[in-house]
Amino acid sequence: MVTSATPSTPSAHHELPVSLDDVRHAHKTLAGVARTTAVEGSRHLSSLVGSPVHLKCENLQRTGSFKLRGAYVRIAGLSPEERRRGVVAASAGNHAQGVALAASLLGVTSTVFMPVGAPLPKVAATREYGARVRMHGQVVDETLEAAKEYAHATGAVFIHPFDHPHVVAGQGTLGLELLEQCPEVRTVVVGVGGGGLLAGMAVAIKSLRPDVRVIGVQAEGSAAYPPSLRAGRPVALESVSTMADGIKVGKPGQVPFAIVRTLVDDIRTVSEDALSRALLLCLERAKLVVEPAGASSVAALLSAPHSFEGPVAAVLSGGNVDPLVLQRTLRHGMAAAGRYLSLRLRLSDRPGALAALLGELSVMDANVLDVGHVRTDPRLGLDEVEVELHMETKGPEHCVEVASGLRAAGYTVMS
């Protein structure tokens, strides 16, 4: 899905809450703190799109995502009195780690509220970066309220993940880097949650290169920007649902929304299948571990490869993925790419029947991952057994060949 925005002329940029000078100042603030992450070419994506595609590998940033940039600039801008009171944040992962490290580097005490179900590796990393972690709430909205109450009670400064000019300016430094590393770029594709990264990059890119198209990408189940752009103001979604927790945000921030509606060319949405396939592609073809939110830009390229003017730069915004989530997502991605096949068959309940079936699959070069047996079911005859197979295949054509081959061998294939 594509939602067109209407970018303004460069002369209107001075009316925005963040300017190019703000981004440049943030860039100086981050010198020696944030890494200049690599830009890598992707031959596979380039062949799909029909022009060069470059990957901006912010998944290799310190703390594993772009969040350090904005958090550090925000905390560095606090007064001595504000620093003395400490900072507080709420996050399920990336922002938590960015705030924790930024505060530690600046000698500021940090408290981070995280939901009870936050992945253990992210909780451990946040603690290791120096934050005091408090577990509260089942969802981020509850955690956010707890952090705000803590700020009110203690005087700690609340560090918002995206809705502050200093945060947006810090994220915009990624845009300055990208233009230096890839001056020939014509389209930049960025994942979007609350909009801080997209807004910051849009300020940097459109101020220096108004000819470059800037496109944001949201997950279909948490796409708050399309209705907000139509309404002309940030609109909250009634519910959000996506595996990409890094962009799972129900309402745009006021600061980034003002910039996005003015400077960004398009907002596109991608399916969960596309996110899974993108993560799998990054791992297999680019040898990069990327979280689902970080792969959203690649998902947009896979969904409509011929709709981007090249050369294209796709931002891989983060790589903090829980191993269990990675396992499930990769399996989902294999299924979406036609490389994972599930079938139910009926066999005669006799010795050797299952071995014979597995022998047939071996001849067809299908890799059996799991086998389930059902003997007690009113649908089955006395001499029948139902077998559920999960297999790794070589692609959609191979899936068809396996199912057809089993039918040709006399097996009853039900799905």
Task: Give a description of the structure.
By secondary structure, the protein is of the alpha/beta class. It has three domains: 2-65 and 164-334, Rossmann fold, CATH 3.40.50; 67-158, Rossmann fold (3-Layer(aba) Sandwich); 338-413, Alpha-Beta Plaits (2-Layer Sandwich), CATH 3.30.70.260. Helix content is 42%, strand content 18%. It has 16 helices and 15 strands. Strands 1-10-9-8-11-3-2 form a seven-stranded mixed beta sheet. Strand 5, helix 6 and strand 6 (132-135) form a beta-alpha-beta unit. The longest helix is centred in the middle third of the chain and has 17 residues, at 165-181. It is globular and about 80 Å long. Residues 1-11 have a biased composition (Polar residues). Its EC number is 4.3.1.19. GO terms for molecular function: threonine deaminase activity.
C-alpha Rg (nearest Å): 24 Å
Structural class: alpha/beta
Instruction: Say what the CATH topology of the largest domain is.
Output: Rossmann fold
Shape assignment: globular
Distance between termini?
Answer: 30 Å
Largest sheet data: 7 strands, mixed
- Number of domains as seen in the coordinates: 3
Fraction in beta strands = 15-25%
CATH domain class of the largest domain: Alpha Beta
Helix content: 40-55%
Number of strands: 15
Mean pLDDT comes to: 89
Uncertain runs are: none
CATH-level-2 architecture of the largest domain:
3-Layer(aba) Sandwich
Strand order of the largest sheet: 1-10-9-8-11-3-2
In DSSP terms, counting alpha (H) and pi (I) runs of 4 or more, how many helices? 16
